[in-house]
Write a structure and sequence with these properties.
Elements lengths: L2 H6 L4 H9 L13 H19 L1 H14 L3 H16 L2 H17 L6 H12 L2 H4 L3 H14 L9 H7 L1 H24 L4
Helix pairs in contact: 2-3, 3-11, 4-5, 4-11, 5-9
Length: 192
């Protein structure tokens, strides 16, 4: 899953921080944060492991695989943030995005400098909110293509998304409730 889903699948502000922090730290650093932030790191890892093993994800990857091969999962993740965003009311999505930015700013000092630069752009352009728009997802796809070492930046990934939107939506609808149940179980295992 991508930024919106990771922030949405949390139960505390500290878990939001851990969910984002996971992508910016080395494995050896994950136990050096406060316990409640560590819960977010654990949730992030549990989400990724569960997602990677799920049948619906394997099927959704087949849509992008012919074009982007091993990067298909990244494009499924971005696509699923679009469907999550569109499952929320505009007001709930906007309020969620603003809360996430406030929480991340409050804990910004524990993130590496590279994160601050990304957060500036994320907040300025309100990435989390704009995942609901085709243009927002198109922007995210271009970012993935730009960062990918072995992919041409001009690949028609967005066009593949648009022409397979209904099929991807059905994979999301079958997958996301399973993920929510899994995350609730992981969270229930944390100390109160």
């Amino acid at each position: 899953m991508n930024f919106l889903a990771h922030s949405y699948l949390t139960f505390t502000n500290e878990q939001i921080v851990g969910q984002f922090l996971q992508d910016f730290i080395r494995n050896s650093e994950r136990f050096s944060f406060p316990e409640k932030v560590g819960e977010g790191i654990t949730l992030h890892r549990a989400i990724d492991t569960f997602t990677d093993a799920h049948t619906e994800i394997h099927e959704a990857k087949k849509i992008f695989s012919p074009l982007v091969r091993l990067y298909a999962g990244a494009f499924v993740d971005v696509s699923f943030d679009y469907f999550l965003a569109n499952s929320m009311t505009e007001r709930d999505l906007f309020e969620h995005s603003q809360k996430v930015y406030r929480v991340l700013r409050r804990f910004e000092s524990i993130f590496p400098a590279t994160f601050s630069r990304m957060l500036d752009g994320m907040e300025k352009d309100n990435w989390l909110y704009h995942y609901k728009d085709d243009s927002g997802i198109g922007f995210s796809f271009r970012n993935v293509l730009r960062k990918a070492k072995y992919l041409d930046e001009n690949l028609a990934v967005f066009e593949v998304f648009l022409s397979n939107k209904e099929k991807l939506q059905s994979h999301f609808d079958a997958f996301f409730p399973d993920l929510q149940r899994h995350v609730a179980k992981v969270h229930a295992g944390f100390k109160v």
